[in-house]
Structures are given as C-alpha cells and as structure tokens.
C-alpha cells in the first residue's frame, strides 16, 4: 500500500489469512490505523477521500473483503457519519427494515434496539431483501466490559466450505432460492426488536392520513421491492390498520459485483437458529405464545 500521512497499515491480532483461491497474505480484515492523533476529523476525511480517489480502498476491499480502522478516536455519531461519507458510497435507504433502530446522525443508526438478552444470529445485512447495502460500517462508541463482539465471516470461503461439506443443500439453494416471511404487528411490544408496518414501510405516511391512505402508502412502499407479496391480517375495531405479513422469494447465493466471486448471501442461518430458539423449526411453526415464526424455506417460488 502507498504511504499515507495519517492512516498506515497496522497489525490486527484477530485478522486471519483467507484460504485459497485468495492469494497469499490476504488478511481478513485488513487493518489501517490512525497514527497522528493530533489530526482533526477533517484531516481523516481528507485522507479517506484521497485513498478512495486513488482506487486504494477499492483494491483493499477486493483483496481482503473488509478493513478494520483502528485508533480513529471518533468523538460522536456525527464524526462517524463524516468518516463514512468520505468514501463516497451511495447511502443505503432502508425499505422494510425488520428491526428497530434509532437514527443518531446522517445514515448512522443503532444496530438494534431489541433487549440485550436477545441474540443476533449470523446473517447478511438485509439478506432477506432484494434491496441490501453494498457496504456496511460498524462503529463501537463504548465497548462493554464483556460480550458485545460482532463476528465477521467472508461469504465466499463460507460458500466453498458449504459446497464441499453440504453439496445437496447448496445445490437446492442454487435451483430454488429461499422464501422468507416477516410479520409486522401494528402493536409491537416495547421489548421486541421487530417493527410495526409503519416503522418498516411508513416512509411517506402522515399523522393526518386516514386508515385507507395509510394502508395504500405502506403497500406502495412494499411494491418498491419487486419480489415482495403481502397480506393484511387481524383487522378489527381495535386494530384498524391491521397486522402486516410480507413474503419474499430470493436467491441464497449472489455474485460479488466487483470481484465476480460467488457468495453465500442470505439470512437462512439466522432464521434457522431463531426458529430453534422459539421452538418453531417444525410444522405448524408456532411458538408457545401461538405466534407463527417459521424458519426460511428452500422455495419453489410459491407463497
């Protein structure tokens, strides 16, 4: 890597060498560290813009898959937002977010507002949607004394491993894809990480809108996802809008747009583990509270 003024290559003890077909010394993640702690956030932003314009960031991501920036000493969500925007990536717009998040700065939000007793299982970000971000930034504002780790796994070697050890599953995944369902109750419990129809799809809804207009605006937002089908349930005088159930049938394997590598890209692992946790892995897929919480299914494309 070319010499830079503020960010330099640095050792990261948790990095691992990626297996073949990656070239030797392909560390995951690669690490850059801020060496000049007297520099300002403006200096860091300028350095990132320089590395992006030169193609260095793109080259590092293509080779290593992820970059860990150490010792940035960002002071706030706003500084993190400035840092992330310096790369020039198009901001992602959430459509149908299944988890509650709190926006803290432009394009910066908490990862999940669910209780800390609820595990977040391995998944690709928005892997159960056709509309997913191309880049994801993580920033830890305050590290806990124990726990809180965010494991990262490169999806291409994972696909190679699964193809070797579970060929029938990967073959079915290639042929059939995966079917997911998400349920958005109008009255979401405060201790739930999930979202209501308005939290997931209410981008254009106004407080003054009548129920029929609210429902039509929510449905218009869902239609922005070309693979989605939906149904309103449990409409009653006490639940005039109704609860919303959305289905999607999507590929479980995708091709990386820059490297051409095939990737295991989906949310089937998280849905499977969540179904085990809820006791809903087998038909009729209902937990002890009567809630329908199935895993995702290898799909024939039918609802």
UniProtKB/TrEMBL annotation:
Residues 54-267 form the TauD/TfdA-like domain. It comes from the Eukaryota. Coiled coil: none annotated. Keywords: Oxidoreductase. InterPro entries: AlphaKG_dependent_hydroxylases (IPR050411), TauD-like_sf (IPR042098), TauD/TfdA-like (IPR003819). Pfam families: TauD. This is TauD/TfdA-like domain-containing protein. It comes from Podospora comata. The lineage of its organism: Eukaryota, Fungi, Dikarya, Ascomycota, Pezizomycotina.
